Amino acid sequence: ERGGVNFSHVLGSQLPPSASAHRPELAGRRWEAMGVSLVLHPRNPYAPTVHMNVRCFVAMKEGEAPVWWFGGGMDLTPYYGFEDDAQHFHATCKSALDPFGADLHSRFKDWCDRYFFLKHRNEPRGIGGVFFDDFAEGGFEHAFGMTKSVGDAFLAAYLPILERRKQHEYGERERDFQAYRRGRYVEFNLVYDRGTLFGLQSGGRT
C-alpha cells in the first residue's frame, strides 16, 4: 500500500544533541552520516509491516583521529501474528549475525525489544528483530561487514513472509484493526524514534 526506500548523506559543523547525548565527549565535533532506511506497509492486514535501516556515522576534530560507528537493524510489526513468520524472521537475523560474533544476535535482539517499546502504552511496537548502534567492535572492516550482512539479509527475512500472507482474505474488520495498530506505529516514530529526532535537530529535509 505504501513503501519508501531512502538514502541519506548529511553533514554538519556540530553534532546535534540527539547524537551527542550518549557520547558527550564528541559534542562540538564536525560530523558526517549516511544510511539507507526502508519501511513497507502492505495493504493486506495479514502481511506485516517491516522496517530496515543501516547507517554509518563519523565525528571529526582537527588533529584527532575520526570517531566512527555503525548502527541499524530490522524489525517486524505484524497486525495478525503467525508463529512460523516470527521464527523465520528471527532465524534469518541470527544467521546474518552469527559469523561476526556468537553473542551478537542475543544482544541485538534484546536491544531491539527494548528500543521498539511504547513506554506510555507499556507494549512493544511489534515482534522485534535486531537493533544496534554505536557499533565499532573488531575494527572498521569487521563492523562494516556485519552491518552489510544485516542489510543483505533483509530480503531473505521478509519476502517469504510476504509471499505467504499477501493473498490472505480480509475484510473491513481487519482493515480497521490494521489502521488502529498503525496508529501505534506513528506514536512510536513521533515520540521515541532517534532517527526522527536526529533529522529534525540536524536540519534534514522536512
What structural keywords apply?
five-stranded antiparallel beta sheet; about 210 residues; alpha+beta; two-stranded antiparallel ribbon; 7 helices; oxygen-dependent coproporphyrinogen oxidase
Short structural summary:
It is built from seven helices and seven strands; from the N terminus they run E-H-E-E-E-H-H-E-E-E-H-H-H-H.
Q: If you had to describe this structure to a student in words, what would you say it looks like?
A:
With 206 residues, the protein is α+β, with helices and mostly antiparallel strands. It has a single domain, classed as Coproporphyrinogen III oxidase, aerobic (oxygen-dependent coproporphyrinogen oxidase). 41% of the residues lie in helices and 28% in strands. The chain is built from 7 helices and 7 strands; from the N terminus they run βαβββααβββαααα. The chain has a 5-stranded antiparallel beta sheet with strand order 1-2-3-4-7. A two-stranded antiparallel ribbon has the order 5-6. Strand 5 and strand 6 form a beta hairpin. Helix 2 (83-97) packs across helix 3 (104-115) and helix 2 (83-97) packs antiparallel against helix 5 (154-165). The two termini are 22 Å apart. The relative contact order is 0.17.
Order of strands across the widest beta sheet? 1-2-3-4-7
Please identify the top-level CATH class. Answer: Alpha Beta
SS-derived structural category:
alpha+beta
Number of strands: 7
Q: Output the CATH topology.
A: oxygen-dependent coproporphyrinogen oxidase
SSE layout:
Layout: E1 2-12, H1 17-20, E2 30-41, E3 49-60, E4 67-77, H2 83-97, H3 104-115, E5 117-118, E6 123-124, E7 128-135, H4 140-152, H5 154-165, H6 172-191, H7 194-201
Antiparallel strand pairs: 1-2, 2-3, 3-4, 4-7, 5-6
Helix pairs in contact: 2-3, 2-5
